[in-house]
TrEMBL record:
<protein>
    <recommendedName>
        <fullName>dTDP-4-dehydrorhamnose reductase</fullName>
        <ecNumber>1.1.1.133</ecNumber>
    </recommendedName>
</protein>
<comment type="similarity">
    <text>Belongs to the dTDP-4-dehydrorhamnose reductase family.</text>
</comment>
<dbReference type="Pfam" id="PF04321">
    <property type="entry name" value="RmlD_sub_bind"/>
</dbReference>
<dbReference type="InterPro" id="IPR029903">
    <property type="entry name" value="RmlD-like-bd"/>
</dbReference>
<dbReference type="GO" id="GO:0008831">
    <property type="term" value="F:dTDP-4-dehydrorhamnose reductase activity"/>
</dbReference>
<dbReference type="InterPro" id="IPR005913">
    <property type="entry name" value="dTDP_dehydrorham_reduct"/>
</dbReference>
<comment type="function">
    <text>Catalyzes the reduction of dTDP-6-deoxy-L-lyxo-4-hexulose to yield dTDP-L-rhamnose.</text>
</comment>
<dbReference type="GO" id="GO:0005829">
    <property type="term" value="C:cytosol"/>
</dbReference>
<keyword id="KW-0560">Oxidoreductase</keyword>
<dbReference type="InterPro" id="IPR036291">
    <property type="entry name" value="NAD(P)-bd_dom_sf"/>
</dbReference>
<comment type="pathway">
    <text>Carbohydrate biosynthesis; dTDP-L-rhamnose biosynthesis.</text>
</comment>
<feature type="domain" description="RmlD-like substrate binding">
    <location>
        <begin position="1"/>
        <end position="274"/>
    </location>
</feature>
<keyword id="KW-0521">NADP</keyword>
<dbReference type="GO" id="GO:0019305">
    <property type="term" value="P:dTDP-rhamnose biosynthetic process"/>
</dbReference>
Amino acid sequence: MRYLITGAGGMLGTDLRLALTGRDVTALTRADLDVTDLDTVRAAVAGHDVVINASAYTKVDDAESHEAEAYAVNATGAQNLAIAAAESGARLVQVSTDYVFDGSATSPYDESTPLNPISAYGRTKADGERFATAAHPDGTYIVRTAWLYGANGGNFARTMLKLAATHDTVSVVNDQRGQPTWTADLAAQIVTLLDSEAAPGIYHGTNSGEATWFDFAREVFRLAGLDPERVLPTTSDQFVRPAPRPDYSVLGHAAWQRAGIPEMRDWREALSAANDAGVLSAG
């Protein structure tokens, strides 16, 4: 079995490489492969049995004013990889996001919930899902994730600890709810999915449970031996940004149950393990 990882230099891509240690893996970074060029993508995919697309334009706020650039990577790039995978007979894992939903739900989003993005980033990722599935319907796995943190990339937990070193208190929004997700857990879950007999379709790759950013920050402080009371709740309207954020991003995990695969562990357990591994304070 030959695996191709695109976006291999990113936070998730790095952990995918680790999760596939010992296997035949081609790991291509953004500099190695331009996913917006179909001929280049065809050449890269040829000879592989599995393609995991971890490449993405993830600058959510910048996408509001650079939607064409985000679309090229997130939508056209996904379509190109799906076309090439279909032609080569390879399975494709297309990593997507909670931003494909509008955030108006009050209970976990089912995998079949209609898409309704409210930001440019969300629109481009939603089109990436549609294009990949249309181009390779029998071999595409859509894995939606959210609130990622990991060793090799921007990390909310590290930001909180840096602020703790220079501020007596830190204000964090308490009106956005989601699922903090460790990229190492997500990478392992994707490998488990590929090793199983699970059918192609949509899966929600997030740690279980739910939290607000305020809850997340307090748990980071606690694990670091800091007083969680130094984290103060605030509201999203105090941090206005170009791209709107979904208020509610909790993703349901019914597809894992149908596939006979355990859902990912609780976010607190994962965060504790990440802390023990030095991920939260690394970098």
